[in-house]
């Protein structure tokens, strides 16, 4: 018997207590919950128009292509106040991807004539169709600003889509983008970031036919501008569009950051005057070219 056991036995006889070794409980490793992998979007080489558009597409949407902070939420709620037009919040449908899961699923879809891009298009179209059907209206408008970067994909998915291009003075866009993200970026960074959207919209304008609308005209004379839009869409103009907050057609929508404008101005229910345009000489050098192209500042002549 070892001395430790002898001591423990003696202490036990004298006091009734025994020493017992405490075994350390092994620490369990911290379980980190892994996020499920997101499906990779279909590559460009798979993108194509629908093989059977009469059954592959349920809607022919209207896309409102605009830079950020250019009044797209205002135009959306105005259009949604119409009894025949459904313009929901930003849907971001082009960000939705599908995955086959197994090689057999891929083989089965291939046998039906569908590649990954085809299936994504079917998903996007069905979501828009569901929204339109639930609204009980005839025309659906999608206004996510980032759509401008993917106009080619949208045109391939919906060959019969129509496009409204909403422009605003580039300096006003940049200033509003800076104010909307206070503390996130300085004015210089906000200007450069907003310019990306402006350039994307300009590329889409060159490639696609559509109607160009200016935010300044919309806020200065909303009746005249919305009449022009309605004529282009082929619907009768309705006076309730101007006071969108009281139209009764679900026009107020969901004002949340990330889904469109969320500020107090848009919540007013009526068209508010736009901000005063900047002096042409004060326009940031980064914006001068696009501002000239859009007709907001005159071209310099030698």
Automatic annotation (TrEMBL):
* Residue ranges, annotated region (Disordered): 24-48
Could you list this entry's UniProt keywords, alphabetically sorted: Transferase
Superkingdom: Bacteria
Upper lineage is:
Bacteria, Bacillati, Actinomycetota, Actinomycetes, Streptosporangiales
Name listed for the protein in its UniProt record: Sulfotransferase family protein
The GO molecular function terms of this record are: protein-tyrosine sulfotransferase activity
Among the Pfam families in the record, one is: Sulfotransfer_3
Species per Swiss-Prot/TrEMBL record? Thermostaphylospora chromogena
What SUPFAM superfamilies does the record point to?
P-loop containing nucleoside triphosphate hydrolases (SSF52540)
